Amino acid sequence: MPLLRFFRPRGWILLAIGALALLLALYLGRRDLLMVAVFCCALPAVACASVYLLKPGFTVKRTLAPALGRVGSPVAVTLDVHGRTPGGGRTMLVEDLPVSFRDVPRFSHPRPVAPRSLLSRYNYTLHPAHRGVFTIGP
Length: 138
Prior knowledge:
Elements: H1 9-28, H2 31-53, E1 58-65, E2 75-83, E3 91-94, E4 106-109, E5 119-126
Antiparallel strand pairs: 1-2, 2-5, 3-4
């Protein structure tokens, strides 16, 4: 991962403020400014480490019924999303569909009805408009 993409711009600004506060604390001999400098430098590092170590993960299982769809007949899709932690992080799931499918379903995970559950189930229907072999997912 390149160093410039490690932090967002506000993280780099906070680090620059921390470095400036550190220089001023050393020049002026102010202990309270030194504490501000340490806080400004440590906060982006701790936030970045927590994002990478504690990120909510989930696995997705997709079921199509019928497995082979036909033009004009609907295909029922069921998504089972298993989270690693109950009520973990919230995310927006967007189905990646070929251009020939008109409606792209979007889901908020976890579902508001079961925020502490490890399983969220989403159902939607696809209407194939063209013949061919299309990959739904991953």
